[in-house]
Amino acid sequence: MNELGALTPTHLRELAGFVTAARFLNFARASREVGCSPSVLSRRIASLESRVGGRVFLRSTRRMTLTPLGESLLSHCERLETALAAVNAELLGHRAEPAGLVRLHLPTTYGRRCVAPLLPGLLSKYPRLRLDVTFDDGYADLVATRTDIALRIGVPADSGLSATSLRPIRRFLVASARYLADAPALERPEDLKEHRCLALHGLRSGELWTFERQRQRRVVRVRPVLRANNADALLEAALAGSGVALLADFVAGDAIAAGNLVEVMTGWTVTQPEVQLLWVSGAERMPRVRATIDLLRERLGR
């Protein structure tokens, strides 16, 4: 390595190449993105490593990963990107057309059914906008995954993030008329113990279903004949007459309207989970992020 030196604005090209390579973890793809050959990009990274005093990547014939020094440098670069984006947003003002990439992390079923139909309209309104959407029911660290916006259901917002609440999800018990014709009475929460239940895997409530009516509160432990981590699978089972399911309105609403499912035990209500819209504080100053947040709040807000 050459003698360690300070990073200055003259090294922005090397830093830009490093950030792109860190995001793709592939020199060939990164070089195409920055508009140079892989060998040129490799030389830029080597020059940067001389400046920072160590390797930023570990490379083998099969994979490429960041070193701890590379992870630290990437974190600093991302803060610089955010600061520059904020400066640009201030200079351009809110009249600037949203452009660039927005990364979203959405719960699988809610995202597909409630958010995905809104995205074509957003892209049509802002042709220079690009979206990278992940449908996943797991927790996403927005900073670590470089995610701009996330939606979470029933999970408190992280203390370091900006958040706003969207419409709560309405959940109810449903079953097919065919199942109910031969099933025991279902008028009270306790009656569920005698029924074949279909439960969503992964809910915090698990197999404890909580019901409320006026000042009464009942908690029932169900023994599902089917557990799944996908609400559509439970919907199909309920439609086929397999049992009673606790489903959200955006999952079962159409089937109820069509008469294929019946809402049962209507005198009792189920806890309605909150939907949180989250983003890294300050990111809303970027027009591309602000436009996406505004659309979600407008269409999915209270």
UniProtKB/TrEMBL annotation:
SUPFAM superfamilies according to UniProt: Periplasmic binding protein-like II, Winged helix' DNA-binding domain
Occurrences of domain HTH lysR-type (ranges): 12-67
Short name of any one Pfam family annotated for the protein: LysR_substrate
CDD domains (alphabetical): PBP2_CrgA_like
Keyword Nucleotide-binding set for record: no
Keywords: DNA-binding, Transcription, Transcription regulation
Domain of life: Bacteria
InterPro entries, sorted: LysR-type_TF_proteobact-type (IPR058163), LysR_HTH_N (IPR000847), LysR_subst-bd (IPR005119), WH-like_DNA-bd_sf (IPR036388), WH_DNA-bd_sf (IPR036390)
Matching PANTHER family: HTH-TYPE TRANSCRIPTIONAL ACTIVATOR TTDR-RELATED, HTH-TYPE TRANSCRIPTIONAL REGULATOR
Name listed for the protein in its UniProt record: LysR family transcriptional regulator
